[in-house]
Amino acid sequence: MRRPELIRTIAELRARLAPHRRAGSIIGLTPTMGALHAGHGRLIEQARRDCDIVVVSIFVNPIQFNQAADYQRYPRDLDADLEFCAARGVDYVFAPPEEEMYPAPLDTCVEVARLTDHLCGPHRPGHFRGVTTVCTKLFMIVQPDKAYFGEKDAQQLAVIQRMVRDLNIPVEIVPVPTVRESDGLALSSRNLLLSPGGRRAAAGIYRALQAAETALAAGTREAAAVQKAALEVLAAHPEIRVEYLQVVDAVEMQPVPVVEGPVRVAVAAWVDDTRLIDNILWRP
Ligand code: AMP
Description:
Elements lengths: L4 E3 L2 H13 L4 E6 L5 H13 L2 E6 L9 H6 L4 H10 L4 E3 L3 H4 L18 H4 L3 H16 L3 E5 L3 H13 L5 E5 L19 H22 L5 H13 L4 E10 L13 E9 L2 E9 L2
Parallel strand pairs: 1-4, 2-3, 2-5, 3-4, 5-6
Antiparallel strand pairs: 7-8, 8-9
Adenosine monophosphate binds next to helix 2 and strand 5.
């Protein structure tokens, strides 16, 4: 098992990737914030299958956190992440220190309108601007042919796809399905922060989404009724505090009153002091 090369600076990463690019190698990027788990693993494995050179970035991006406490307690374990990447044949791990990515306060940012107006957008002011700005920087630094994003963060995926389309960024965005624990809870680095009781209760989030799916499959089309079916499940879990649970169209991320095309049922909820998100895709 060959450990991936750990790279800390933009200049070094560019220097390493240039010969691969000249040789015509397909370069794949999986952007992450580390504390890698099997959800990230699925993105990396897909990149390994599709690409000649696989780069995993590990950077807890301060500008996408709207709460300082959340940034500070975000799990970090670079040694474990390097082992994880080694086991999956990653070529380069790009883990820049904060000063490398943000040597000076930014006067430039990238912002996607409209798709960020609902779901996580209003609840996390500045979050998506931080995500789109850091992803643009990573795309400019790595210049990948393909970049891998999880459907677990469906709004993020839609926003990145729109940004790449609107700005003609020459990268193919590859969506990867959500990986779940055996009880349905979507894998997330933040699950590490849950208490044992919170962890058990958190499975209720996916059960609520399944209730929405059952309602849709049974022919329910009013979003309010779909929402109600899911919220009833969550009401049985006092440990779960719902931030939003909405039915949105799967491309524009706008709430729909009636389900007529592909939708996502998306939820954000607090368990203990940890905010979890999840969603399902449903096509009529
Ligand atoms: P993060 O490190 O949480 O920023 O996530 C990095 C990438 O991994 C994002 O594209 C996420 O959508 C994706 N990801 C995180 N958790 C999962 C999961 N359970 N299944 C699939 N992809 C995931």
